[in-house]
Amino acid sequence: MDMALSKDDLDVRERARALTRTYLFPVEEELDEFERLAPEQEATIREGVRDHGLNAINHSREHGGQGMTIVQQCIVNEEVGQSTGALWGRVWQPPMCLKDGTPEQIEKYLIPACAGELSTAFCTSEPGSGSDAAGIATNAVADGNQYVINGEKCFASNAEFADLSLLTTIVDGDSSKPTLFLIDKGTEGFNVARLPRFSQRSGHGHPELSIRDMKVPATQILGEVGQGFELTKDWFVEARLAIAARSIGMAIRATELANDWANEREQFGQKIIGFQAIEFMIAEMATEIMAGKSMLYRVASEIDAGLDRKQAHAKASAIKLFCSETGWRVVDKAVQIFGGRGTMCENPVERLYRDVRLERIWEGTSEVQKVIMGGQIAKRGLDMYVGWS
Ligand SMILES: Cc1cc2nc3c(=O)[nH]c(=O)nc-3n(C[C@H](O)[C@H](O)[C@H](O)COP(=O)(O)OP(=O)(O)OC[C@H]3O[C@@H](n4cnc5c(N)ncnc54)[C@H](O)[C@@H]3O)c2cc1C
Fold it and tell me: Does pLDDT of 235 surpass 90?
């Protein structure tokens, strides 16, 4: 078994590390304080992403992406995920399902999105439907060669700015027909109802949307009527591995900072690293990172080697569960090691503490990952998780 990173993988890591440290870390505090960056700063970061060859790492070269392996995508997410305020989102990864569009949709949306010229939002969650995504009620009713859509959405990250919103609906009130619509910015009837504040200060919101008699041509459907969830299945694997990689990245940064601090801070006439209570916390943090990182890269390389799609989906749940919970536990310990200074917003560890909390919730909560795993164990047996082949 060879789990060593290739020369190309190491090059990807260097580029992602350089981008994170040169472009993202320096603007973190400003973003946290003012909840926005100046347009020139955003433009500089976008240029940096292109210069480092990190735009659309999840798409093919044919469409203007980087054509990276899953392992390489994890490497990038581990590095950029160390930045706070969701600055990792500036390293754009357009929704994978855009590749399933018609040639016209690919030309109009995917290619500019990969180039960083078109921003996107993905609007599935609703006031009455979160974990139970199949319970969405936003309804598209056929009317000649167009659809009239009504409904409410919430937590629609970036939808107040996005050039393109992917909107999940049902069709004709039939919940067996989940369907994705491509909604251009400014489409009449697509309204931001409220922009609540969140613990993470990322420079964009997660608005509540009110969709009223919005008329959309049938040509704006992605894939086919009823294909909405099928088209997003692969994306769930990608998104869950990305969350796991980011969580590990956050845990690594927090541990490095806490270890440095413990070797510098003196109390009772000695460095606090000399107290076994602190030394043990660092040892536990390192162990958890090692475990999470091992499962993440093992399965990522299995996927690159052609792992069956259903198994990838099942394993991604375990990885998202473990790595996001690990990230949380590790960052919490880092705050503890910093003492009161761990709660100062100028300390990256404090901001990581707010950010890492989200990773246990979005793209399926920890409880939902366990529900998925429970179903898989009942259906396919435990071996998928505890075996090795
Ligand atoms: C900052 C932020 C950004 C987001 N961005 C987006 C976005 O861009 N697009 C989008 O569509 N959504 C987005 N979301 C929504 C996110 O995916 C949901 O918050 C998440 O799926 C959970 O849904 P919920 O918040 O409604 O919680 P609920 O589904 O109401 O769950 C509440 C609690 O019940 C538990 N629970 C629910 N069902 C079960 C079960 N079967 N068994 C055991 N426990 C269960 C949950 O684990 C949780 O602890 C975002 C959320 C946040 C906070």
Answer: no
CATH architecture type of domain 7-94: Orthogonal Bundle (1.10)
Pairing of strands 208-217, 146-153: antiparallel
Q: Is the CB of 122 under 6 A from ligand 1?
A: yes
* Ligand 1 mean position, distance from CA 131 (Å): 5
User: Distance (Å, rounded) from C-alpha 307 to C-alpha 321?
Assistant: 20
CATH class of the domain comprising 120-222: mainly beta
| pTM for the whole structure | 0.97
Amino acid at 377: I
- The dihedrals phi and psi of 9, each to the nearest 5 degrees, come to -60, -45
pLDDT in tens, 253-295: 999 999 999 999 999 999 999 999 999 999 999 999 999 999 9
Nearest atom of ligand 1 to the alpha carbon of 125? 11
- The tokens for 354 are 């707010």
Domain ranges, ordered by start, for the chain: 7-94, 120-222, 229-386
C-alpha 106, offset from chain centre:
22
Taking only the tens place, the pLDDT of each residue in 186-226 is 999 999 999 999 999 999 999 999 999 999 999 999 999 99
* Fold (CATH) for 229-386: Butyryl-CoA Dehydrogenase, subunit A; domain 3 (1.20.140)
Q: Is the CB of 361 under 6 A from ligand 1?
A: yes
